[in-house]
Design brief:
By secondary structure, the chain is α/β, with parallel strands linked by helices. It folds into two domains: about 5-95 and about 395-455, Urease, subunit C, domain 1, CATH 2.30.40; about 95-350, TIM Barrel. It has helices at about 70-80, 115-130, 135-150, 165-175, 200-215, 235-245, 260-270, 275-280, 300-310, 315-320, 330-335, 355-365, 375-390, 415-420, 425-435; strands at about 30-40, 55-60, 65-70, 85-95, 95-100, 155-160, 180-185, 185, 220-225, 250-255, 290-295, 310-315, 340, 405-410, 445-450, 450-455. Strands 5, 6, 7, 8, 9, 10, 11, 12 and 13 form a nine-stranded parallel beta sheet that branches. It has a seven-stranded mixed beta sheet with strand order 3-2-1-4-14-15-16, with helices on both faces. Strand 15 (about 445-450) and strand 16 form a beta hairpin. It is globular and about 65 Å long. The structure holds guanine (GUN) and zinc ion. Zinc ion (ZN) binds near residues 102, 255, 293, 345 and 348.
């Protein structure tokens, strides 16, 4: 029987308009997964958190998409020949969506002891310099996708490096896996080592060529990617703003107001700007499909403008603590009506795991006066990030019409977690220890477009 955590009707999603599932994928026919299937009817920030979600007994997958969710008897009647996979008491939910990552920083994750600017110069830039080599880029792209998949992440928005080869490598690896990825060439034409610098013109030309080649190819989409204001001249920001205007269905991803020193630097480089956000806006780089990583230390005008435009603030909690950037005040941002996504920010972030990211979100919420409900954490890592990436009509929930990108979570994956979840009286009480203490051992199965994936690492 379907257990309504609350009585609202499950939304029937319109057919995924964003892009088609690749027809080169072997189609899965019909699969009936049973377990504790978790879906959202509404945002748990808009309605009482517990009442935003619903539990079902089963999910029916047909040709890579979710055909139905509901009680087992009803779905078994509907699809008597479906392959059955029983996950018992495990939770089946939407695959996690990491709305801001740097796949080229995989190899330097957890590098000790620096503030943002010298962390970039000491660890990040030397590593990113290696991605002009297509073979190196391909190797890291595969490793990165293996690692994220083994942690239950099925969709990523990633920065690449200045080299087009780094974008090619990530998109090609994702395409082979049938995986949804948004990514872009990271543009920098100043304040970076010579080997990592492009120009205003080459950033425009190369990004444009990559858009033509990859944007909308299967499940791939392009994100125009100025790294952040300090590493771009006004001319480069202008060129990328023009490119976005020519391709308004692309995402635009960058960084905003992460650390005090960075904000002061932006002020000195762009003295005429009203604030950091104004630098982007003045160059055509503020819009609804804009993704602003970190966005911790915002002025009132910036907050009002971001909410007005409907751009997304991407919360990167493990990075914000690891690099010492500050505490993102999620309760206040929610109250302002900001669009929010959640992200690891690998490798400034100290994890590949969206479970760990949810735990850090909870902890920072506590430090800033907001105790987030587990439903809110799960929503942020799935439907919230999907909405930030404007992919909510394809992914981020377990609902008819969406892609069957799913993760199965074992709520007793370690002795420490098992002994706590064993005494739980509600789903949320059972799930919360996995959110707070879980890692890739909690990820029992991952499906992309209905197909189970096995990463090389797990
Ligand atoms: N700001 C500009 N580039 C970066 C980066 O690679 N990581 C983080 N955390 N912040 C940045
Ligand atoms: Zn970042």
């Amino acid at each position: 029987m379907t257990t309504p955590i609350y009585p609202a009707r499950l939304t029937a999603y319109r057919h995924c308009a964003h892009s088609r599932l690749s027809t080169s994928l072997p189609m899965t026919d019909e699969i009936l997964l049973t377990g504790r299937v978790l879906s959202f009817d509404a945002s748990p920030f808009d309605v009482p958190a517990q009442s935003a979600a619903r539990l079902h007994e089963a999910v029916l997958i047909r040709n890579g998409r979710i055909a139905a969710v509901g009680d087992l008897a009803g779905l078994a009647d509907r699809a008597p020949r479906a392959q059955r996979v029983d996950h018992g008491k495990a939770v089946i939910c939407a695959g996690f969506i990491d709305a801001h990552a740097h796949y080229p920083q995989t190899g330097i994750i957890a590098s000790w002891g620096k503030r943002l600017i010298d962390w970039l110069e000491t660890y990040t830039f030397p590593e990113e310099g290696r991605f002009g080599d297509p073979a190196y880029a391909a190797g890291v792209a595969e490793r990165y996708l293996d690692l994220t998949l083994s942690h239950g992440t099925t969709t990523i928005a990633s920065f690449c490096t200045v080299h087009s080869a780094s974008v090619e490598a990530l998109f090609a690896a994702a395409q082979r896996r049938g995986q949804r990825v948004a990514a872009g060439k990271t543009c920098m034409d100043r304040n970076a080592p010579p080997g990592l610098r492009d120009t205003a013109q080459s950033a425009y030309d190369e990004s444009r060529a990559l858009i033509a080649r990859w944007h909308g190819a299967g499940r791939l989409s392009y994100a125009i990617t100025p790294r952040f204001a300090p590493t771009s001249t006004p001319e480069q920001l202008e060129a990328l703003g023009a490119l976005w205007q020519e391709h308004p269905d692309c995402l635009m991803q960058t960084h905003l107001s992460e650390q005090g020193e960075e904000i002061a630097w932006v002020k000195s480089l762009y003295p005429a700007a009203r604030d950091y956000l104004d630098v982007y806006e003045a160059h055509g780089l503020l819009g609804r499909r804009g993704l602003f990583g970190h966005a911790i230390h915002l002025e009132p005008r910036e907050r009002a403008r971001l909410a007005e435009v409907g751009a997304a603030l991407i919360h990167c909690p493990t990075s914000n603590t690891f690099i010492g950037s500050g505490l993102f005040e999620i309760g206040r941002r929610v109250a302002e009506g900001q669009r929010l996504g959640l992200a690891t920010d690998t490798g400034g972030g100290s994890s590949f795991s969206m479970l760990r990211t949810m735990a850090a979100t909870y902890e920072i919420g506590q430090l800033t006066g907001t105790a987030l409900h587990p439903a809110q954490l799960m929503w942020l890592a799935t439907a919230g990030s999907a909405s930030a990436l404007h992919m909510g009509d394809c992914i981020g929930n377990v609902a008819p019409g969406l892609d069957a990108d799913l993760v199965v979570l074992d709520l007793a994956s370690t002795p420490a977690i098992a002994q706590r979840s064993a005494r739980a009286e509600t789903l949320w009480e059972a799930l919360f220890p996995t959110i707070m203490m879980g890692d890739d051992r909690a990820v029992r199965e991952v499906r992309i477009a209905g197909r189970p994936v096995r990463s090389a690492i797990s």
